[in-house]
What does this fold into?
Amino acid sequence: MGYTNAYNAYQKTNISTASQGRLVVLLYEGAVKHIGCAINLIEADGKIKASNIEKFGIHIQKAQSIITELQVSLDMEKGGEIAKNLMSLYIFFNEELLDASIKHNKEKLQSVLKMLSDLTESWRTIANSTANAPAAKVTQTLNIEY
It folds into this structure.
């Protein structure tokens, strides 16, 4: 019980102290994790065991919820063309996940997983850049003194 409480406290602190870029990365990582779990529930013959159908649906729903959260957080006014492109991608991802959920289509899930994994790496790079760092770190990195 103590381990679970400590882990939950760590996760809460990790999220509450994260930069915006890091939060986006955490969301992407969550979507990737849930899609991966859903893929693992599809057997080699393309079927899902009856005992795993509910788990499969939950993983797809969680991934869709995360993608929807990313979608609604877009600033369409300030984001310009990038925000429009991300919106299109998020809509596409949720449509593909819905279709894959209905048809238990492993290939579609793998395709979305690949694209989300690529985006995760891009966001991770952005989040780790000094442009997204706290002001104190930027001033230290650039050797600025006050």
In short: Residues 138-146 have pLDDT under 50 and may be disordered. Helices lie at 2-16, 20-40, 53-72, 76-103, 106-128, 135-141.
